Recover the amino acids of this structure.
């Protein structure tokens, strides 16, 4: 049901296909070598691409974080190796604690709500009522909008002076909230905006997962007298588990690195009340007139490491499910 | 059999294309680095709003033609330009001439990528000392200012007269706060400024910080705390809106332009928009704590010549810089950009052409460079801590004293 599971069985017939060609010795060896070359030639562009766009940038980022870069040594390229200095500087920075906590809160609260809302909507749309397709398409809008547009719009809506949200609160007699300018609300505000942006992604993937659950199961359950909730709990949710796992993992990686939304809405402020590891990394590297590339890269690497840990966790969980 | 050959061929073609692509890429960057003989010079500026057909674009092209070369101009976002320059210098393809925001000059000098104006033999004697000061480190200047701008208080005449405030009576902080109180009592809004968590926020806070007599080397002095307490008082009392924390200078101007606000702290560059605002406005200098005008920070760009491996290029670069900063060209340039010229001679002509510039010329005369006074590359760190403290205090997260104490500790660490 997941991508990984689908392509594994497919590969074996291809291998056995070349195996059947081994009938006559000499020509077949030549042919095999040629096919190996062909294979290599096919792989080469991918390897070159991966090396140029993945391995090298990662290596550079690691290199940046392990050297003591000043603007001068950045240009001259002779920054001395400083070991873990950048990392210890970052870990001891008073911003690190709040940034890590904000990152975790931002990520987990966002994902929990995105997933719950996405699942609820997916189940809802799976009933195939009239206009379901149209409505579903409308729900995709947050996903289609460029982030800068949606983030700026949220920023206007939540403006403490002239925002439409405070106006609505005022109409209902609630006193205005400093959504983006109060240290107590800033993180909540960016989380709300991020949930709104992330729901379509969850909806689409979970909806496609629902399509794969055979309708007979529901029929059988209905014959057995299972209620709607029981059907969801005993059939939908367990059978959706693999899809849920990949949705949550992708959501996690995607949310951990959210930068533009927060930067546009609050710049990580006020103070550092809504700064996450991603915005802090940018702040260090590019946010001031005097860039601190080393610590900025170190924060970036910590972020990659966190994503990696969750990725490994996912693989582990998936393996256990398969076993 | 045939199909394998065909796939092999296809794969080879694919690899070949990829290889030739990278080869092209490499060749391209190489040729731009060593284009000593081809007469194309590169020019970067932070004015992406002007395209080639604008007055500024034409003037740049003209200066290239006069120097006998083709000048290729690229406009970058101001915040982007410093890092772009560092990266370009690292790759060995820095532009020949570059216009940068004045506080960036010290960072680029620290990186060792700017040539000294004395080395190029540029004459900077006619330029006002405090303006060129922002690009001067240890007594050596590294660029020629193209113009200067700074901050003052725009006021809305209708709002002030309705509240019964005479703008001429505003001499110090107490009278300004008194005026804000009257305006609020009259049902209008007091003042808007930008306290955003970027360099813009520090730029806007500095007139008050310096106006209190505080010094950037000691953020948490009693004087510094007084400046931050003034802003905090305004926000807490509702004289200034809470969204100043998010305001850039542009959005702050938009608030002032609604006509609801009595005062807006903004820069020379808004003069054109002020004419279009649809209400009568005036300008006063930002008052110091105990009267008189507060020292304001200088804004504006410097023309710099990044270091090149091929030093023979400097001769043409010098001609281009001289052309851009000649009195003849400064006048139209600074008129386009709404800047105050860096030389007294051109300033006089500017005031003659537009008397409204007079308070701005006075403000610029008493302005200070942010990186002046031996601060240099210490300024960016201090500035970052300062805007963080402003944000922390205005949002109610910390008291002004606590916020500035923390800022001073962090700035001291570097």
């Amino acid at each position: 049901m997941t991508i990984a599971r689908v392509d594994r069985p497919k590969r074996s017939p291809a291998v056995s296909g070349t195996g059947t060609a081994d009938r006559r010795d000499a020509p077949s060896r030549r042919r095999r070598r040629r096919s190996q070359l062909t294979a290599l030639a096919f792989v080469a562009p991918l390897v070159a691409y991966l090396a140029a766009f993945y391995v090298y940038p990662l290596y550079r980022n690691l290199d940046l974080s392990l050297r003591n870069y000043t603007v001068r040594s950045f240009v001259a390229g002779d920054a001395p190796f400083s070991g873990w200095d950048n990392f210890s500087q970052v870990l001891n920075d008073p911003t690190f604690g709040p940034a890590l906590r904000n990152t975790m809160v931002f990520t987990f609260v966002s994902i929990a709500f995105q997933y719950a809302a996405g699942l609820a909507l997916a189940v809802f749309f799976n009933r195939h009522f009239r206009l379901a397709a149209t409505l579903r398409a409308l729900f995709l809008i947050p996903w289609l909008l460029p982030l800068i547009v949606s983030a700026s719009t949220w920023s206007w809506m939540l403006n403490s002076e002239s925002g439409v949200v405070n106006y609505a609160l005022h109409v209902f007699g609630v006193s205005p909230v400093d959504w983006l300018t109060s240290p107590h609300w800033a993180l909540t505000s960016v989380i709300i905006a991020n949930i709104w942006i992330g729901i379509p992604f969850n909806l689409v993937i979970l909806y496609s997962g629902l399509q794969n659950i055979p309708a007979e199961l529901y029929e059988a359950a209905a014959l057995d007298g299972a209620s709607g909730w029981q059907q969801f709990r005993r059939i939908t949710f367990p059978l959706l588990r693999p899809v849920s796992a990949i949705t949550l993992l992708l959501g996690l990686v995607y949310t951990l690195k959210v930068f533009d939304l927060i930067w546009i809405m609050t710049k990580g402020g006020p103070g550092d009340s809504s700064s996450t590891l991603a915005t802090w990394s940018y702040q260090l590297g590019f946010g001031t007139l005097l860039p601190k590339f080393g610590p900025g890269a170190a924060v970036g690497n910590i972020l990659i490491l966190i994503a990696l840990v969750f990725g490994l966790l996912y693989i582990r969980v998936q393996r256990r499910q398969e076993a | 059999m045939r199909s394998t050959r065909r796939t092999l061929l296809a794969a080879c073609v694919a690899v070949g294309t990829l290889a030739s692509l990278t080869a092209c890429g490499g060749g391209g960057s190489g040729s731009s680095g060593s284009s000593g003989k081809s007469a194309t010079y590169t020019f970067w500026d932070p004015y992406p709003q002007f395209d080639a057909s604008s007055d500024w674009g034409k003037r740049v092209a003209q200066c290239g033609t006069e120097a006998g070369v083709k000048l290729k101009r690229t406009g970058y976002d101001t915040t982007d330009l410093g890092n772009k320059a560092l990266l370009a210098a690292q790759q060995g393809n820095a532009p020949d001439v570059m216009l940068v925001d004045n506080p960036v000059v010290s960072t680029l000098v620290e990186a060792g990528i700017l040539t000294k104006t004395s080395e190029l033999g540029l004459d900077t004697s006619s330029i006002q000392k405090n303006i060129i000061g922002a690009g001067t480190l240890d007594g050596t200047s590294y660029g020629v200012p193209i113009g200067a701008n700074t901050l003052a208080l725009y006021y809305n005449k209708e709002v002030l007269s309705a509240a019964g405030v005479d703008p001429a009576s505003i001499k110090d902080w107490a009278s300004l706060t008194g005026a804000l109180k009257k305006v609020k009592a009259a049902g209008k809004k007091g003042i808007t400024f930008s306290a955003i968590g970027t360099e813009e926020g520090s730029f806007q806070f500095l007139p008050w910080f310096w106006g209190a007599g505080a010094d950037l080397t000691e953020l948490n002095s009693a004087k510094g705390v007084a400046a931050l307490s003034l802003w905090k008082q305004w926000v807490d009392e509702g004289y200034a809106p809470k969204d100043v924390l998010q305001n850039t200078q542009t959005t702050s101007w938009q608030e002032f332009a609604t006509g609801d606000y009595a005062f807006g702290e903004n820069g020379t560059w808004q003069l054109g928009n002020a004419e279009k605002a649809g209400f009568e406005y005036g300008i006063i200098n930002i008052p110091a704590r105990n009267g008189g005008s507060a020292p304001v920070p200088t804004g504006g760009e410097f023309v710099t010549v990044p270091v090149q491996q091929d030093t023979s290029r400097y001769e043409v670069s010098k001609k281009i810089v001289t052309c851009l900063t000649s009195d003849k060209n400064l006048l139209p340039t600074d008129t386009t950009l709404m800047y105050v010229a860096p030389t007294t001679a051109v300033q006089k002509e500017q005031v003659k052409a537009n008397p409204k510039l007079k308070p701005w010329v006075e403000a610029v005369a008493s302005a200070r460079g942010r990186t002046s006074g031996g601060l240099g590359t210490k300024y960016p760190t201090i500035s970052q801590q300062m805007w963080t403290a402003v944000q922390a205090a205005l949002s109610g997260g910390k008291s002004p004293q606590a916020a500035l104490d923390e800022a001073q500790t962090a700035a001291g660490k570097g």
Notes: Confidence is low (pLDDT under 50) at residues 1-22 of chain A. Chain A touches chain B at residues 31, 34-35, 37-38, 41-42, 44-45, 48-49, 52, 70-72, 74-77, 94, 155, 159-162, 178, 180-183, 266-273, 286-291 (CB under 8 Å).
